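Predict the holo structure. Ligand: magnesium ion.
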Amino acid sequence: MAEKITLSVIKADVGGYVGHSSIHQNLIDVAKEKLSKAKDNGMLVDFHVTRVGDDLELIMTHERGVDNEEIHQLAWDTFLAATEEAKKLKLYGAGQDLLSDAFSGNIKGMGPGVAEMEFVERKSEPVIVFMADKTSPGAWNLPLYSMFANPFNTAGLVIDPTMHEGFQFDVVDVYGHKAITLSCPEEMYDLLMLIGAMRRFMIRRVYRKDGEICASASTQKLSLIAGRYVGKDDPVLIVRCQSGMPAVGEALEPFAFPHIVEGWMRGSHHGPLMPVPFYEANPSRFDGPPRVIAAGFQITNGHLIGPRDLFDDPAFDRARQLANEIGDYLRAHGPFEPHRLGLDDLEYTTMPQLMKKLENRFKEE
Ligand code: F6R
Ligand code: MG
Ligand code: MG
């Protein structure tokens, strides 16, 4: 049997430069050094370190499968080393996403976001790693639905016999701690009923009907881990492309529509998700608006050939312009909903503290 390769994307915000807008080069250098050693000693086949906004992104290939303790430990140690550097420079929120003192086998539930998949490399293996800042994992629901279930987005669903069967969606209820698999197109309306509620139901994985993995997303919600607001989840997503999976262009197409997501300023505001080239992934206006980058790789014998900066295309200029217009429109609402999140969502912010102060002043009516 052909050997399987695992692609692991693990990320954390371990310190912002300046504020929460971007990352200092030293953190990237520290991470590269750590992963380089792991590549030299054979633990990793290959790696690429990058960032979106203030999030440090470790993209790694190896042969140890998903949820592998050593790989997660390596990521944890890398974030610790980068935190040391962030502390030295007194960068903002140094170590903020590392919610635990000690590593205990799996990095999930400890703060960092994780998306992984294991597969047999195809004759040619194009993948896209999407990485977002100032938003939460529900931000992937609309684009994943579009890529794998919407024939108005993905022409292959209609005209490619290898896609015509449709796909299966593994959806997690992050509040109910349950998951369900729904099959499209047959159960499209059931799927939409759930995933339209982006803060509760999140698409975690997408499979072809023969069981082949197509997409994997991080679904870690920091506020649910910590029980309070400690920064935004800033999720990652891996999508395999071409030959029976969405074409690269079909996987990118949903982002031509900058849909509204949660996570802008203090994690407490809605804003448009703006697709940007790597060099523009520095959310500064009102700490945003939320950003997404797309790093394209050819995986060749486990090696990461790339990345190609896939939103570095003038064809996405209109999406960026629209995002700015939507941004202006929403900003004009100031502290009013629906720019500001609804009360339920503010539960995990500093808002309850302020509400407490007023508690005794409410008179019965
Ligand atoms: C961070 C974020 C930022 C901060 C804001 C206030 O993910 O979204 O908008 O919430 O800059 O940060 P503090 O409270 O640390 O001053
Ligand atoms: Mg930050
Ligand atoms: Mg961030």
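The pocket of magnesium ion (ligand 3) is lined by residues 13, 53-55, 133, 232, 234 (CB under 6 Å). The chain has two domains: 1-120, 121-356.
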